[in-house]
Amino acid sequence: MEESIISLFNKAIRGDETAFRLLFETYSRRLFHLAYYYLHSRELAEEAVLDVFTVVWQKGKTLSYVKEPERYLYISVKNQALHYIRRGYVQEKDSYSLYEIELIPDSDSPEKSLLDEEYQILVQQAIDSLPPKCKEVFRLVLSDKLKNREIADVLSISEKTVNIHIAKAYKRIAEYVNQQYKQIKGFMLLLL
Asked: Domain RNA polymerase sigma factor 70 region 4 type: where (predicted)?
């Protein structure tokens, strides 16, 4: 049974190394994505996440007031990233895709695997074509499984704006994939 984030966080701030390690393993990748969204640097994003977890470990019991640990972690990483930006630490952008998804094929046939791979590429291209804020909202919903209210808090936008971005993302991805699929299918018919 998976331990709740509140229980895990409370154990970690009381000095439980195992709980702290599990908390870090559970959230570091997600928090890295958020930091990278602001910093566009792998190194700085990793540093921002480590800074936040260092504070959690060092301040320990002084964080007992935190009632929503997940929200606390996301907002702390966002604030740390913004602090780096204000201090001028951000210099050049990495070319690193945070929005890759993995589809698991239903069967092991080579033809099915090839079609799944082509579909995955189309979906990834569709996600990459989204506007930056829309792409980040979509990733926070899809990958990090955050609730709309949590995304609104993390990105400092309204919940209504989050809903608009999500609807826009699904619509644009569907349109893109359908358009590309029709072009590929039309091309295949020409070859026959």
From this structure: 122-173
How confident is the prediction along the chain (192 residues), in pLDDT tens digits per residue? 356 889 999 999 999 999 999 999 999 998 998 888 888 888 999 999 999 999 999 988 899 898 999 999 999 999 999 898 888 877 655 455 544 444 444 444 454 445 556 677 777 888 888 998 898 888 888 877 788 888 888 888 999 999 999 899 888 888 887 787 676 655 544 444
- Do 55 and 117 share a domain, yes or no? no
Question: Which residue has tokens 């919903």?
Answer: 141
What is the secondary structure of 13-41 as a DSSP string? Answer: HTT-HHHHHHHHHHHHHHHHHHHHHHH--
Question: Do 18 and 74 fall within a single domain?
Answer: yes
Q: 164: which 2 tokens?
A: 């608009």
The model's pTM is 0.59
Domain that holds residue 118: 110-191
